[in-house]
């Protein structure tokens, strides 16, 4: 009996046994969970009697995705399990009691909506959503009444207007101020247009002569304290109940600790201010094996398996995604700020965890042929937003691509682990990791740098193509600069070429059509902060000033350090009534942790230039002429008081030169540094600092700096070719006759001004073509092709098409007598049209195919044809991860390695099968080989996931899928 049937039966039985007192028909709580509440459990449907559950929710303007579900998602109800439904106010929608895509509620004004679910017929629950009238609120009081000092920041809007943020304090001379802040901009979420907050005696304060600048720093500190919690929670873990942890939660709408969010936030600023809480949070993201797990033969690392956790996500998590290594960014900062008495224990654990992570990532995600690691782009983990549209139906292809940001993360993990190994006397390990890091840096520069763009490609096309795409992301570019992967010349080129809109740099370039604002068409403050750090490293004042402006504007007008904003308008919500499916950002949380860390780091690390080192602190401020003549014009000095590091309280004062002439550009050189009145260099050892030290920095001459910046603009409501890429084309036909190959390009769409480029085996072989037939006389019978669309005016390019190979491959079905497995064949059914080996993959399961032969000698890609329906394509920890080996007749291994079998979509009928990531093998003609598949591991094997609500969690590890056969595909110049 399947889950929906069990659920319906449980509902029916309970309804029949309900008492006369009208007991609730459900044995569990249900919630309205959506983009308006972070998909959390803040909005319970409360039983009203007569089978009706109800919740009244204040909803802001937008097109909001939502579902009805239980706390642990065991129950999930949607209007249509096959397609999203936009609900109309007051209409009744029968709900399917099974998983499916989100439903949507559109509203163009803030209103309270009553969500009503009628389960009086348990087999057929019904949803209605309708606005309800609420009493008019009283006019708000003036938040600045009685102020002793006020300030204002004004910002032009994209449509020629002006928005204003106002700030005030009652007593500007108070040691700790209480601020009021208001905004004229319409906020994203319902609530007042003003807020108040206080400076905290445990945190540093700023006194700059500009009340607004001082206030915004205090706001970030206040929000860091709000994100400092004693317990975390997520509906997918621990039954939704609180988990004790003196940790950082991720934001107002996100109450859990996520590896990458935490790591980037700590690296940007939080490790300077609360190292103990950062440590607790980082340790929470480590895990060993869960009870009962036996480490498979090929798994690397220590017996306890301690490693960094890859959070739930695409295709069932690691190693489709491998950016868990971003943990190293935070660990490196923490090791420089933790008190000495606590550092050694953390350093030892960090080395064990990073080593186990590195060694297993090397097995599961490292491509020897290119020298790069596979895996999803770091942070850009909503596949539709940044990948080709077809990729969501083939997540093994996503898993097989290589991303710049993720590879730079691996580089950072290797360098940090090498340093820790040396510190612990493990010189062999340090040497190995140093070599791997050096080789990886070389591969990134050789494989991902695009000279014609002057930037790194964000990602490669998948296997059977592999070309670096003309797609770019600001985080990856910035991380390449700040880690030193990019040399000085490349750093300058990146900073000059990456596009900036009027409100700042978008997180990706170019934008993708038909997608709402989230990663696509958005700026994210934490990414902007890394761009700022990169600009300072490259001494590019134009890019730095754009970042300073963007970060201050976002925090000032939104009364919070938001998760994200639309990039061309700077709006927290671009309400596109003509295209409600494009409205966004689809979700954005206040006090988002990495945005908070970004703002704190902007002030402390960038403006004041204070950074911890292993031996002390660096003081290298970066004050531009624009900052001096604008934000800092009122005074002759700015000060940061009470920065606490290593048990010391430090005051830093920057003495400013005179306000420069209008139009001046550059940054100010450091002329002199005094520590407690004594001269020091920019690097100050701990021994030179007392319990309370004053650092005075005199800024001197204005240094020119680089001013190159690429400015772009467009109407935010138009998918203009100036800022968007074309939709990807496809290869409609591919045929080889008489030594030539002919492919037919199906156009990307009906737009004018599009030309097409053809790639063979990952290399550009024809460009600026029209749609239609093209003949290749140089390719072989083993070549693979892909096509890319390009706007002729802007040069912006699409993702590549699905690659197609000339060779049809050698296929062996699961029903073939050469196949042997430890599970029996299951017959075809309504959803799956072929017999298959169902639910294969328990640790002891074995799968072999004997007498496998290929017709010609050469390089082959070996793949498993499968289906994994353990969870949805965007969720979970149960992606298939197995060890595949090819042996010759003597039993000698000719190829072996990890293959990935990620989650795949399920249809009601005739669900298509998919292929695993490929294993490369060089094979001889007509020689019998044997394929063997055995266990490896996935994230469900980790103890941290034992309370996960879905597959791989409370019911034990899940590394299982259905097998339909294998394929051996002849390849040529491309690498699988």
Task: Give an overview of the whole structure.
By secondary structure, the chain is an alpha+beta fold. The chain has 16 helices and 56 strands. The strands form 15 sheets. Strands 1, 2, 3, 4, 5, 6, 7, 8 and 9 form a 9-stranded antiparallel sheet that branches. Strands 45, 47, 48, 50, 53, 54 and 56 form a 7-stranded antiparallel sheet that branches. β21 (449-450) and β22 form a beta hairpin. It is globular. Residues 1-20 have low confidence and may be disordered.
Outline the secondary-structure elements:
Blueprint: H1 3-16, E1 30-34, E2 44-49, E3 52-59, E4 62-70, E5 76-77, E6 92-94, E7 103-107, E8 111-118, E9 126-132, E10 149-156, E11 162-169, E12 178-183, E13 194-198, E14 205-207, H2 211-226, E15 228-232, E16 243-248, H3 259-273, H4 275-284, E17 286-287, E18 307-308, H5 327-337, H6 340-365, E19 366-367, E20 372-373, H7 383-386, H8 395-400, H9 404-423, H10 427-447, E21 449-450, E22 455-456, E23 472-473, H11 474-482, H12 488-497, E24 499-500, E25 508-509, E26 522-523, H13 525-537, H14 541-558, E27 565-566, H15 593-607, E28 610-612, E29 616-619, H16 625-629, E30 637-645, E31 648-655, E32 667-675, E33 678-680, E34 683-685, E35 692-703, E36 710-711, E37 730-737, E38 740-746, E39 754-760, E40 763-769, E41 772-776, E42 784-791, E43 797-800, E44 804-805, E45 810-813, E46 819-821, E47 825-826, E48 836-840, E49 847-852, E50 858-867, E51 880-887, E52 893-901, E53 914-915, E54 919-923, E55 929-935, E56 961-970
Helix pairs in contact: 2-15, 3-4, 3-5, 3-15, 4-5, 5-6, 5-9, 6-9, 9-10, 9-11, 11-12, 11-13, 13-14, 13-15
């Amino acid at each position: 009996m399947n889950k929906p049937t069990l659920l319906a039966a449980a509902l029916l039985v309970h309804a029949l046994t309900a008492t006369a007192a009208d007991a609730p028909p459900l044995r569990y709580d249900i919630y309205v969970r959506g983009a308006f509440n972070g998909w959390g459990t803040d909005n319970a449907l409360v039983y009203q009697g007569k089978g009706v559950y109800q919740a009244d929710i204040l909803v802001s303007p937008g097109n909001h995705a939502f579902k009805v579900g239980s706390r642990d998602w065991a129950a999930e109800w949607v209007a249509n399990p096959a397609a999203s439904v936009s609900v109309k106010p007051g209409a009744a929608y029968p709900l399917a009691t099974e998983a499916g895509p989100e439903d949507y509620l559109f509203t163009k004004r803030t209103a309270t909506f009553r969500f009503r679910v009628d389960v009086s017929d348990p087999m057929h629950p019904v949803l209605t959503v309708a606005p309800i009238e609420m009493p008019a609120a009283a006019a708000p009081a003036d938040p600045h009444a009685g102020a002793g000092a006020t300030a204002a920041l004004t910002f032009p809007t994209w449509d020629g207007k002006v928005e204003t943020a106002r700030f005030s304090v009652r007593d500007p001379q108070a040691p700790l101020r209480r601020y009021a802040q208001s905004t004229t901009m319409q906020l994203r979420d319902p609530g007042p247009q003003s807020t108040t907050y206080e400076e905290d005696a445990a945190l540093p304060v700023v006194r700059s002569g500009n009340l607004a600048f001082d206030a915004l720093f205090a706001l970030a500190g206040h929000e860091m304290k709000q994100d400092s919690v004693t317990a975390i929670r997520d509906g997918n873990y621990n039954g939704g109940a609180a988990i004790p942890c003196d940790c950082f939660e991720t934001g107002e709408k996100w109450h859990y600790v996520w590896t990458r969010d935490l790591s980037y936030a700590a690296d940007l600023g939080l490790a300077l201010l609360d190292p103990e809480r950062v440590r607790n949070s980082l340790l929470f993201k480590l895990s060993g094996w869960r009870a009962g797990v036996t480490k498979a033969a090929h798994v690397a690392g220590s017996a306890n398996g301690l490693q960094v956790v890859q959070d739930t996500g695409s295709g069932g998590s690691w190693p489709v995604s491998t950016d868990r290594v971003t943990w190293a960014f935070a660990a490196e900062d923490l090791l420089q700020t933790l008190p000495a008495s606590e550092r050694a224990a953390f350093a030892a654990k960090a080395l064990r965890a990073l080593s186990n992570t590195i060694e297993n990532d090397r097995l599961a995600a490292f491509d020897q042929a290119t020298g790069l690691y596979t895996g999803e782009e770091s942070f850009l983990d909503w596949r539709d937003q940044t990948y080709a549209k077809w990729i969501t139906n083939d997540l093994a292809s996503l898993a097989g691509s290589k991303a710049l940001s993720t590879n730079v993360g691996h580089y950072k993990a290797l360098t940090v682990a090498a340093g820790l190994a040396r510190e612990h006397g493990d010189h062999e390990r340090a040497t190995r990791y140093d070599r791997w890091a050096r080789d990886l840096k070389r591969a990134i520069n050789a494989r991902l740098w695009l000279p014609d763009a002057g930037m790194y490609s964000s990602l490669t096309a998948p296997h059977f193509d592999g070309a670096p795409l003309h797609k770019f992301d600001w985080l990856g570019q910035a991380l390449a600069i700040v880690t030193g992967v990019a040399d000085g010349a490349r750093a300058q080129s990146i900073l000059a070429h990456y596009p900036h809109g009027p409100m700042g740099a978008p997180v990706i370039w170019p934008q993708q059509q038909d997608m709402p604002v989230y990663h696509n068409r958005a700026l994210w403050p934490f990414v902007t902060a890394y761009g700022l750090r990169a600009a300072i490293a490259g001494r590019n004042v134009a890019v730095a000033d754009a970042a300073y402006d963007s970060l201050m504007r976002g925090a000032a007008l939104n009364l919070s350090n938001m998760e994200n904003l639309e990039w061309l308008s700077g709006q927290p919500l671009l309400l596109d009534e003509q295209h409600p499916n494009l409205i966004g950002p689809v979700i954005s949380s206040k006090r988002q942790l990495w945005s908070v860390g970004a703002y704190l780091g902007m002030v402390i690390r960038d403006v004041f230039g204070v950074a911890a080192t292993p031996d002390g602190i660096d003081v290298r401020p970066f004050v531009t002429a624009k900052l001096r003549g604008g934000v800092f014009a009122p005074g002759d000095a700015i000060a940061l008081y009470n920065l606490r590091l290593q048990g010391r309280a430090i005051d830093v004062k920057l003495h400013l030169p005179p306000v420069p002439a209008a139009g001046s550009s550059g940054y100010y050189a450091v002329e002199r540094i005094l520590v407690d009145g004594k001269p020091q260099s920019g690097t100050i050892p701990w021994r030179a600092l007392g319990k309370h030290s004053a650092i005075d920095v005199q800024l001197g001459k204005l240094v020119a700096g680089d001013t190159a910046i690429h400015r772009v603009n467009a109407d935010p409501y138009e998918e203009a070719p100036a800022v968007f890429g074309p939709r990807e084309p496809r290869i409609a036909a591919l045929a080889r006759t008489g030594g030539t190959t002919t492919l037919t390009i199906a156009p990307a769409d009906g737009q004018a001004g599009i030309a097409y480029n053809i790639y063979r085996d990952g290399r550009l072989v024809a460009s600026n073509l029209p749609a239609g037939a093209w003949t290749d006389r140089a390719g072989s019978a083993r070549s693979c092709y892909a096509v890319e669309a390009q706007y002729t005016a802007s040069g912006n390019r699409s993702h590549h098409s699905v690659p197609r190979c000339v060779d049809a491959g050698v296929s062996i079905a699961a029903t073939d007598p050469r196949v042997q497995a430890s599970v029996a064949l299951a017959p075809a059914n309504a959803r799956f049209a072929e017999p298959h080996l169902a639910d294969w993959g328990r640790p002891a399961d074995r799968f072999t195919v004997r007498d496998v032969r290929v017709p010609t000698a050469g390089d082959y890609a070996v793949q498993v044809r499968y289906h994994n329906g353990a969870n949805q394509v965007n969720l979970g920890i149960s992606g298939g991860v197995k060890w595949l080996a090819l042996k010759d007749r003597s039993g000698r291994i000719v190829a072996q390695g990890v293959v990935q079998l990620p989650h795949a979509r399920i249809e009601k009928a005739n669900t298509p099968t998919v292929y695993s990531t490929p294993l490369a093998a060089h094979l001889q003609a007509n020689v019998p080989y044997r394929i063997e598949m055995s266990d490896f591991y996935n994230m469900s094997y980790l103890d941290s996931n034992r309370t996960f609500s879905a597959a791989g969690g409370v019911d034990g590890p899940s590394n299982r899928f259905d097998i339909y056969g294998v394929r051996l595909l002849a390849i040529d110049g491309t690498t699988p």
